[in-house]
Design brief:
By secondary structure, the chain is mainly α. It has nine helices and no strands. The longest helix has 24 residues.
Length: 194
């Protein structure tokens, strides 16, 4: 599949969008892989490609955290964490993106969208997903206030220390991704609305 990255696309980023040929081979491969998987090249990867090798390293960290076939936590748990983190950070791109992914993971697109708008208004969340959403919100907004009691609450859900730390990874890497997309003012993909 051909990947078209125009020299400058003011409609998707406030900074220059590099051409595919300018990028390191590892990043080119990541973009081609994502394009093949989704059937289109998402604006977020086109916009942050400006980081070159740094972006490739970031993607090596980010992408496996939300791979449905990897991870210590179930995929829906990781999507709850990513979606709530993005919503709490006010990242419209990531919120829209993960509303759809969460909806697929939960088997309910309306529920995914409602969580992305404000999880606190979603009565149907399972106790597990509510606890994970509350943890994501707290770590995002008030990291210094996360207490031993919060960790114990996660343990009561059945999470072991490695799973708790994976949750922290998801929340933290999405906080970083949110800052990239917010700063760049990445335009949401048309696919989010169709």
């Amino acid at each position: 599949m051909s990947v078209d990255l125009p020299e400058r696309t003011a409609t998707i980023s406030r900074l220059r969008v590099p051409g595919l040929e300018e990028l390191p081979p590892k990043l080119q491969h990541q973009i081609e892989s994502i394009t093949q998987q989704l059937g289109y090249t998402p604006n977020w990867i086109r916009a942050i490609a400006l980081g070159g090798a740094h972006t490739a390293r970031f993607n090596e960290y980010l992408l496996p955290l939300l791979d449905p076939n990897q991870g210590l936590l179930p995929y829906a748990d990781r999507e709850i964490l990513a979606t709530v983190t993005s919503a709490e950070n006010g990242c419209s791109y990531c919120r829209l993106n993960h509303a759809g992914s969460l909806g697929e993971a939960l088997g309910d697109s309306k529920l995914g969208t409602r969580v992305a708008i404000d999880f606190k208004e979603v009565r149907e969340l399972s106790p597990r997903h509510r606890t994970l959403a509350e943890f994501a919100a707290k770590l995002t907004n008030h990291p210094g206030e996360v207490s031993d009691a919060d960790i114990e609450t996660l343990r009561e859900l059945g999470l072991d220390d490695e799973q708790i730390f994976e949750a922290v990874h998801v929340i933290s890497v999405f906080a970083a991704a949110n800052r990239f997309t917010i700063f760049l003012q990445v335009t949401p993909d048309d696919a989010f609305f169709g």
